[in-house]
Structures are given as C-alpha cells and as structure tokens.
Amino acid sequence: MALRMSRQNASSRSVAKLLVSEERKCNGILQRIDSLNEQLRSPRFQFINKAQLQADTIRRKLKLGSVQPNTSTSSAIRRTQFQDSSNDRYLGPICLALRAKPSAGKKYMTALAHFLEPVWEVHVANGLDIAERVSRVSAQIARLWNTNKFVTHQHGSSVLSTHVPAAVPAIDPRTLLLYPEHLRSVVDHIFGGVLIADSDEASAILLKRYNIPSVTVDGNVSRVGEYVGGHSNSSASSQSRTASVFAYQSLGAQASTLEQELDVHKASCASLSTLLALLRQQGKRRQMCEENRVQTTSCIDKETKLRVQLAQLQGTLDACIRHHSAVVATASRGVDHEGDAISVALSAKKALQGLTVKRRQIKLELERLAHRVATLNNKSCSREEQSGDEDDIANDDVTEDTTLQARLQKQQLKIQEFTVQHQHAKHTLNEVVAEEVRVQSKIAEQADIEELLQSEMRSIRDVSNKLRKQSVKLKQEIAELQRQVGTAHTLSLIHI
Fold it and tell me: Could you tell me the pTM of the whole model?
C-alpha cells in the first residue's frame, strides 16, 4: 500500500511538472501572439485595419438593413479570411481577399506589386443591387467593383501550357495567389493576361515570339509598343502596400498557427489538469483508505480490549454472585443453629423452673418435718420427766418417735437427693444461662452479619448494576465498532 502510494505520488509530481511546462509554453505562445498582434496594430498596417473595420461596419449595416453610417471604432485585429458566404454577396476589400502563396516569396513581390498596388483599397460586390446598397450604407468607399462586369478567362495559363516552351522562365501571376472562386473574374481583370518573367530576355521572347505582355521580377513591364522600367531592390518597393499586405498576411498566419498551437497546449493543459486532479483524487482516496484501514485496525484492537475488559467484568460479576450465594448460605446455616440453641435454652429454662418449684415444695416439706420433729422432741423431753406411771404411754411414744425418725431420715435422704438434683439443675441452669449468653452474643453477631450481609448485598447490587451498564455500553461500543469496521471495509472496496 505504501509502495503504491509512493508510486502514485511520483506520478502526480511528474504530471504536475508536465503541467507547469505546458503552462509555461502557453504563456510563451501568448506573449508571442501579443507581440504579433502589437505588430499588426502598427501604423504600417493601418490601411488594412481600416479596410477591415469598414468591411465589418458594412456587413453589420447590411444585416440590420440600416443606412445610417456607423462611426464606432474597434481595436480588434482582423486577419485575412476568405469571404465565401452564399448569404452575403458583399465580398469586402481586395486586400483582405487575396493571399500570397508561400511560393511567391520575395522574388515575385515587385512584379505582384505592379498589378496589385492600385487595387488594394477596392471593395468588391457580387451584383449591382448589393453594390448600390453598399454605396448607400458607406459613403467612405472610393472604389467599388461589381464582379458581374468582369469575364473569367484562362488566357495566361492556356498560353503557358500550349505555346510557351518550358525553356522560357515565366509564370502566371494568378498561380502565386490564393483567392475565393467567386473572385476569379476580378483577379483575371487585375492581371489582364500578363505573365511574370524571370528576366528581361524572357520578357522580350514572350513579347516578340508569342505577343504576350509580361512583367519581370524587377518590375519592368513589356507590352507592344511600351516598356516601363521597375524599381528593383529600392526602398519604395520594400515599403509598398503589397509588401505590407503580404507581411500582414504572414503575421496573421503566424498568429493563427500560434493560436492553433496554443489550443493544442491548452487542450494538453486541460488533459494534464484532469489527469492531475484524478491522480490527486485517487491519492486522497488511497489516503482515506489507508486512514480507514488504520482506523479499522484501531477499532479492532479497541474491540479486542473491550471484549477482554468485558470478560474480566463478567468474571468479577460471577465472583460477586458466588460470594453473595456463600454469604446467604452461611447466614441460613447461622439462623438454623441459632434456632436450635434458642429451643435448647427454652427447654433448659423450663426444666430449671420445674426443679425450682420442686425444690420449694421439698423445702416446705422439710420445714414441716423439722417442725414436727421438734415438736416430738419436746414431747419426748416432757415425757422423760414423767418416769413412772407413764411407761405405756412412753413406749407408745418411743415407737412413734422411731417411726418419725425413720420418716425424717427418709425425708433427709430425699432432701439430699433433691439437693443433688438441685445442684445439678443449677449447674445445668448455669450452663443454659451461659449458652443463652452465647446465643445472645451469636444473635448479636448474626445481626451484625445480617447487617453486613445487607450492606454487601447492596454493594453487590450496585456493582452488578454498574457492571450491567458497562456491559451494555461495551456491547453498544462493540456494535458501533463493528458497524464502523463494516463501513470502512465497504468504503475501502468502493475506493479501490
């Protein structure tokens, strides 16, 4: 992924460099076009620009059907174009209709100037009606030709092809020019069947042998009974309007070529700009994919950590639940043991109460028996004082006394037995009291345990609620992370 991004960045930099280079070329071409336009606006070409302005004004007025003169001026440079519209029979000035071929060069410039110099400001119309309309809408035109007045012929070309041998260096001047087909009659009229000869000797041969007038490349005119010398290599020839027209056309052609080249470079700039924008967009998409991948990895790591944390919290919750169950079981066992201890204490207390009642009864019986023994002893003493006559009564009393003594001993044995039982019961009661104290302590401890248990239960419930909330939140975060991962994966597939 990183290697692909580095390659794409290198491609983007290369395209950016090419785009900068193309933009520099465009700027250079624009500067050259501005320079050419500046030259075309120079005073040397003023009459051509004026003729172009007049032609535009006339066409606008003819189109609108207006006869009012238009005095508006324009600084725009109009380069030479063919006026070959079937809907507009006004053909414009000749200086904008005729163009020199590259083969004309400087060699034939002087000879062509002989023919064209007088007619550069002539305007041409195809038909008498359109010529009259042009005359009405523009009174500034000095010369206006109607093409219907001229007859098309092939005199020069036919003579060269049939009569003049190839050894004679001559050329038809019409072959050096480019012009619309509907101006052929006007061009034939301008050149009048005159040829251009390379030298005076060739011109003399054409005139003497073939009776063909000619103009030499130096501007010498040869006709029957006439010979006019030219101005070869003179400053007047180099400054002629013909040279200006052809120079204007050459500059215009250069400007047109540069404009075409500019269009090509602009198209290249547009293509490179589109390609650069596409590469940058792809780079952004790849960067977004990389960011999504990193984000997806981070989300997966976070999800893993959250799952581990969730497992830990679940383990903590299970431990709390187990602890709660153990505490509840312990509390239940403590309550059962406490109930047994209380029931034993109650039974011991009831037994102690029964022994106490018995002890009281035995004590009352002993007191009653002791009182009776004392009474019997008193009677025995009183009877011992009566020794004589009362023997029978004494014997009876002794017998009764013996019986009472036996009963007293029996009662004493019972008292001792009840005393032992009472002591045992008292000991048992002490044990029961101690057990009761211990049970009360256990009850208090159990109350503390119950309170602690309630507090622990509340804490467990709080922790459980908190863990459930965290669990729900973690599950929501995991679901959100899974949704983000799915979205990022889908976006990555879409971008790729």
Answer: 0.51
